[in-house]
């Protein structure tokens, strides 16, 4: 992709949202933040988003419901789910709907960077019309997020 990747970040926690955005910007990407999933859906940025990083637990539509809504509307946007309340049910549901990462807060910055790079590679492959690796093949081990 010749454009700077747009990374949309959704989290109802201002500090988390802005911290992730600073990291994204420091990597040379363009971060844009939203307080809720509904704000993102109403923003007009869905199709332009290269990767979406979303919190799981938020008022209104939660991160998994957002992921499912995007898939049902035909958006292949790679999604990384972050949560302070991890469990296997949520993790399985996220990956079943095509998430490329599921990270437990607080997470290791490097784990987020690896997920983000994998998501951008996946999106680039989609843009070129090539078949990319299945999201479950991208390593995002929960244990790694605790290092």
Q: Overview of this structure, please?
A:
- The protein is of the alpha/beta class and 147 residues long.
- It has one domain: Response regulator (Rossmann fold), CATH 3.40.50.2300.
- It is 38% helix and 16% strand.
- The protein is built from five helices and five strands.
- It has a five-stranded parallel sheet, with helices on both faces.
- The N and C termini lie far apart (32 Å).
Q: What are the secondary-structure elements, in order, as H or E? A: EHEHEHEHEH
Q: What's the β-strand tally? A: 5
Strand content: 15-25%
Oligomer: single chain
> Helix- and strand-based class?
alpha/beta
Task: Find the CATH superfamily.
Answer: Response regulator
- Percent range of helical residues: 25-40%
Residue-averaged pLDDT, rounded?
86
CATH architecture: 3-Layer(aba) Sandwich
Radius of gyration: 14 Å
Largest sheet: 5 strands, parallel
Question: Would you tell me which CATH topology applies?
Answer: Rossmann fold
CATH class: Alpha Beta
- Domain unit count: 1
- Ends distance: 32 Å
As residue ranges, the low-confidence spans are 130-147
How large is the count of helical segments? Answer: 5
Biggest sheet: strand arrangement: 2-1-3-4-5
Shape, per Cα inertia axes: globular
Task: Fill in the keyword field for this structure.
single chain; 147 residues; alpha/beta; Rossmann fold; 5-stranded parallel beta sheet; disordered C terminus
Give me the secondary-structure topology.
Elements: E1 6-10, H1 14-26, E2 30-34, H2 37-41, E3 51-55, H3 63-72, E4 79-83, H4 88-96, E5 101-104, H5 109-127
Parallel strand pairs: 1-2, 1-3, 3-4, 4-5
């Amino acid at each position: 992709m010749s454009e700077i990747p747009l990374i949309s970040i959704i989290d109802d926690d201002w500090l988390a949202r802005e911290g992730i955005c600073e990291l994204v910007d420091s990597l040379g990407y363009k971060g844009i933040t939203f307080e809720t999933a509904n704000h993102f859906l109403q923003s007009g940025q869905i199709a332009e988003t290269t990767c979406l990083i979303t919190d799981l637990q938020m008022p209104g539509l939660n991160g998994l419901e957002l992921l499912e809504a995007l898939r049902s509307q035909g958006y292949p946007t790679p999604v990384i789910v972050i949560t302070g309340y991890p469990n296997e049910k949520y993790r399985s549901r996220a990956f079943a709907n095509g998430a490329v990462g599921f990270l437990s807060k607080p997470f290791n910055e490097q784990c987020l960077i690896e997920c983000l790079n994998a998501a951008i590679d996946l999106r680039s492959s989609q843009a070129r019309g090539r078949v990319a690796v299945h999201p479950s093949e991208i390593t995002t081990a929960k244990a790694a997020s605790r290092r």
